[in-house]
Design goal:
16% of the residues are buried. This protein has 96 residues and is α+β, with helices and mostly antiparallel strands. It has one domain. It has a 4-stranded mixed sheet.
Length: 96
C-alpha cells in the first residue's frame, strides 16, 4: 500500500466537447500501473465514493469517478433535501 497520493476534482472533455466533472486519485510514484473507473451510486459521487477512489490509489492504481449526472445537474449530496412533490407539496389532487 502506498501512502503518497494526489487526489482532486478535475474536468475532463467528453463527447461533443462536454465538460465533465470527475474525481481523480493517483499514487505519486512513477511507473506502470493499472487504472480503475469507479461508478457512483444514484445521487452522484459523494464523500464515500471519493474515499473508494482514494483507496484504489493507495493500492497503486490510477482511479477516477466521473460525475455521470453532469448533463442534468451537479452531483447532489445525499444529505441535500429534495423539494416535496404531490400531496406533500400541498397539491390535494395529486396521486403521488
Amino acid at each position: 500500500m502506498r501512502d503518497a497520493l494526489t487526489a482532486s476534482t478535475i474536468t475532463i472533455v467528453g463527447h461533443g466537447g462536454d465538460r465533465i466533472e470527475a474525481y481523480l486519485a493517483r499514487p505519486e510514484d512513477q511507473g506502470p500501473r493499472g487504472g480503475v473507473v469507479v461508478i457512483h451510486h444514484l445521487p452522484g459521487y459523494d464523500p464515500a465514493t471519493k474515499e473508494i477512489v482514494r483507496r484504489f490509489a493507495e493500492m497503486g492504481h490510477d482511479a477516477i469517478s466521473p460525475n455521470l449526472h453532469y448533463r442534468k445537474r451537479r452531483a447532489r449530496s445525499p444529505t441535500t433535501r429534495r423539494r416535496p412533490r404531490g400531496r406533500a407539496a400541498g397539491c390535494p389532487m395529486s396521486g403521488s
